[in-house]
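Please check both lines for our workbook:

___
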Amino acid sequence: IEKWHFKTDYYSFIRTELIDLIKDKHDSQLNILEIGCGFGATLCRILSVWGNSSIHGIELEPEVAKIASTYIDVIQGNAETMPIPYNINSFDYIILGDVLEHLVEPRNLLMRFIPYLKQSGMFLCSIPNIMHTSVLFPLLFEGKFDYKDSGILDRTHLRFFTLESINMLFKSCHLKIQDIYSIDSCSPGNEQKLDTLINTFKLPSRQQFTTYQYILSAKK
């Protein structure tokens, strides 16, 4: 951190849960863009499986983009405002792994990049769930809404999403969610509190409170 002024592990995750949404045969020639690609770990894993593919990345952090660009095609820029240097109708997949919550206007970014998807192309997204018990219960029982260095309440998050608002966001962009599933996590103590709330009040489905993150694909 002292040398580079950022946490290297924060930009090094391989998003296997997003890669699992790619169902194409391994000899397919895919063209893939990742917005917020970090060091490009996810893109490199994709290339190791779909070896005939072309991978591209956009990264906001200048030093991170500089490092990644030494071994894959990564450009530095703010995807919300930068000129887009790609051809229309060129990508099979555009990956947004924990990106939308960092944006000033998530809908505008989706609308900006829709033209760059092929007709059959898809967005692959992961989005944290603000209804998760780890956020809800401290707020409900203690009045706490404390930002952290990472996670659902990452201090760099500008937007927060629930399952309902995710559906509304993609619908407003005329995008159809193809697959969506949950990554669940709930401590035993919170499970007991949740059972009490569910038994007392008419609440949405239990899973909306135990889902830490939604993983989804969406197409035109």
